[in-house]
Amino acid sequence: MSGAKRLTPDADAPLAVRVAGLSFQNPVVLAAGTAAYGRELDGMIALDELGGIGTKAVSLRPRAGAPAPRVAEEAGGGGGGGGAMINAVGLANPGVDEVRRTELPWLAQHLRRARVLVNVVGDTVEEYAAVVAALDAVSGVDGFELNVSCPNVRAGGMEFGADPATLAAVVRLARAATRRPLFVKLSPAATDIAASARVCVDSGVDAITVVNTLPGLVIDVERRRPALGFGSGGVSGPPLLPVGVLATWNVHRALGPSVPVLGVGGVASAGDALQYLIAGASLVGIGTAALRDPRVPERVVSDLRRWCERHGVRSLGEIIGTLTWPT
After folding, report:
1. pLDDT of residue 162
2. How far apart are CA 265 and CA 272, in angstroms?
3. 94 within domain boundaries
4. Does residue 244 lie within any of the structural domains?
5. Domain around 274
6. DSSP state, 45?
7. pLDDT tens for residues 2-25?
8. CATH number for the domain including 305?
9. Is residue 178 part of a domain?
10. Which residues are the active-site residues?
């Protein structure tokens, strides 16, 4: 269970939200895969001032990940956060036993208000549940995010989210392994992301994360080879913003306000975060922008608070899901 020292975020704060039974002091979370296990960002980002952190992926056994180079940038994309980034890290991680022994205790000791969502991956349907079960009683863990949408691995990635029966099985087994909140992270490449979200909810999840990175390819024209060691990779950054906002709206419109959404993709400012909130997200993830400038997450929180003050918004619930669609 969560550590006894953890404080409950102020429920009266204008930015506070309640998602899947958890109180978040504000809606800004660090997106999984971009914040490691928190320790690496200590001193660069005031982690406990944020709503939460999504950890780096955790698998049953250690994963070496994809070959180098793992990250490349594209100059295009525009927006305040620069161009697109493409990565193929390959879900590298030390495995659940080591994460449980060294990484999660550090988070439990250093975070008092920010929530911790552990990102979970597996090579088989059963491995997701095994990781969840192994971490279910660990202090400081608030919930789990099942990653069924990573485009940067040859096994244990997008195939789990592409087939409804397999997706349902992943969720059902994980649900049986914990009573903690379960999120499922879906791919923007899904044929019908709202239908996939419905499968997840019907199988027992509490919230939906949209979206993961979008599959892409960057070519080194001088070598006539992919810029990444894996070949293709996942595209993130500003170009992903409208994709993620649309996915958020589609899921919110299909499933309604009773199913919370964590909107991720391209957020670099409070204006970007507000797009997700108005589209129906209750939480907003920041990833690539924080890698470029660690001050971005705290600035987004401050700017959101000022925006609410200027517009007389006393609670984010007043704006979440208020998009008016053209008739």
Report:
1. 72
2. 9
3. no
4. yes
5. 17-58+101-212+239-318
6. B
7. 444 455 555 458 999 999 999 999
8. 3.20.20.70
9. yes
10. 150
Residue 246: both structure tokens together: 């649309």
- Identify which of 135, 130, 131 has the alpha carbon closest to the alpha carbon of residue 116: 135
User: 39 CB contacts (<8 Å, ≥6 apart)?
Assistant: 103, 106, 107, 110
SS3 content of the chain, % helix, strand, coil (to 5): 35, 20, 45
Please count the structural domains in the chain: 1
Under 8 Å between Cβ of 20 and 181: yes
pTM value surpassing 0.90: yes
Q: Give the count of beta carbons closer than 10 Å to the beta carbon of residue 68.
A: 10
- Tell me: the pLDDT tens digits for 193-204? 999 999 999 999
**Hey, what long-range contacts does 138-141 have (CB within 8 A, 24 or more apart)?**
138/100, 138/104, 138/108, 139/1, 139/2, 139/3, 139/104, 139/105, 139/108, 140/2, 140/3, 140/6, 140/104, 140/105, 140/107, 140/108, 140/109, 140/111, 140/116, 141/2, 141/104, 141/116, 141/180
Residue 202 counted as domain residue:
yes
Quote the longest CA-to-CA distance of the chain.
57
For residue 215, pLDDT over 80 is answered with yes
CB-CB contact of 284 with 277 (8 Å): yes
